[in-house]
Design goal:
64 residues; 44% helix
């Protein structure tokens, strides 16, 4: 979806798993293992564009 609908370059997408290393529940039960099978999507801005947006907002707020 990110690639096809929003033209996000594949080189900007990273996948990682932490459930084995940072479990939310005990893995001794099926329910606990199910809880630990999770996906979190974190979208980070391009920092240069982010700082430019902040600068523009500050200029607008100060009336420049």
């Amino acid at each position: 979806m990110l690639q096809n609908d929003y033209n996000v370059a594949p080189s900007r997408i990273t996948a990682g798993a932490r459930s084995e290393y940072v479990p939310l529940a005990d893995n001794d039960t099926a329910e606990g293992r199910s809880t630990n099978r999770r996906i979190r999507i974190v979208i980070l801005p391009k920092l240069d564009q982010f700082y430019e947006m902040i600068e523009q907002g500050m200029k607008q707020a100060s009336g420049e």
